[in-house]
Amino acid sequence: MHNIKVLVLEDNAIVGFEIKKRVEELGYEVTSSVTNYEEAIKSLKNNPADIAIMDIDLGKNSKDGIQTAQDAQKIKFLPIIFLTAFSDEKTMEKAIMGNFIASYITKPFTKESLAPALILAKTKLKNNIENKFIPIADGYFFDYENCHLYYKNNPIKLSKQEKRLFTLLIEAKGNIVSFETIEYEIWPDAPVSNSSIRTLLYRLRNKLNSELIETIQSFGCKLKIS
């Protein structure tokens, strides 16, 4: 599994920064630290995370963390660690509904409480994708764990970059993956030209039914999912 990426959603920016710092100290990458529902959903669409740490109470001007977590699942499967100051039974019952809930931490949090919660979330993520053959469309399916693509049981050989691009498209579940995300994920050490991204897409399309991948001009691309 690639390096685990974490989204932090906390309406108090100072607390959010502290969570980000602690998560990174534990060896995870933080995609972004945001303060409300809209920022969280935008971040997940543009720079997909694998796990999210979400405060339940995001203030009066935002949907709460529970609603955010539920809507996040429409973008991709995302294990959630809830961070909360609430301890009443009704709130906690509402928070733990859903198979995407990995754990919850009560405030004030500590690095020691974050570590096991992240391990639980990582395990939940792994269990969700492990040994799964994901049907795509038109007879194609993808072995997520081993990054192998098949067409009617026949393997299709992909380069390392093609595999990473296809994995990004699979993880997006038919949603758009921006060219910015593709560049960051495949060429993290140096910026590349648009022609490099177009060439990679061209090579991948040549190995597939070209209609499987749709390009959204000047923005990104997405995969046709059955």
Descriptive notes:
The protein folds into two domains: 5-129, Response regulator (Rossmann fold); 133-223, Winged helix-like DNA-binding domain superfamily/Winged helix DNA-binding domain (Arc Repressor Mutant, subunit A, Orthogonal Bundle). Helix content is 40%, strand content 23%. It has eight helices and twelve strands. A five-stranded parallel beta sheet has the order 2-1-3-4-5, with helices on both faces. The chain has a four-stranded antiparallel beta sheet with strand order 6-7-8-9, with no helix packed on it. Helix 2 (37-46) packs parallel to helix 3 and helix 6 (160-171) crosses helix 8 (194-206). The chain starts with a strand and ends with a strand. The mean pLDDT is 86. Keywords: DNA-binding, Phosphoprotein, Transcription, Transcription regulation, Two-component regulatory system. One of its GO terms (biological process) is regulation of DNA-templated transcription. GO terms for molecular function: phosphorelay response regulator activity; transcription cis-regulatory region binding. Residues 131-225 bind DNA.
- Please tell me the CATH architecture of the largest domain by its name: 3-Layer(aba) Sandwich
Helix-strand topology string: EHEHEHEHEHEEEEHEHHEE
At CATH level 3, the topology of the largest domain is Rossmann fold
What global shape is seen? Answer: elongated
Number of domains: 2
Number of helical segments?
8
Counting helices, strands and paired strands, the structural category is alpha/beta
Sheet with the most strands, sense and barrel status: 5 strands, parallel
Identify the CATH class of the largest domain. Answer: Alpha Beta
- Please state how the strands of the largest beta sheet are arranged side by side: 2-1-3-4-5
Fraction of residues in β-strands:
15-25%
Share of helix among residues?
25-40%
GO molecular function: phosphorelay response regulator activity; transcription cis-regulatory region binding
Protein name: DNA-binding response regulator
Keywords: DNA-binding, Phosphoprotein, Transcription, Transcription regulation, Two-component regulatory system
Modified residues (4-aspartylphosphate): 55
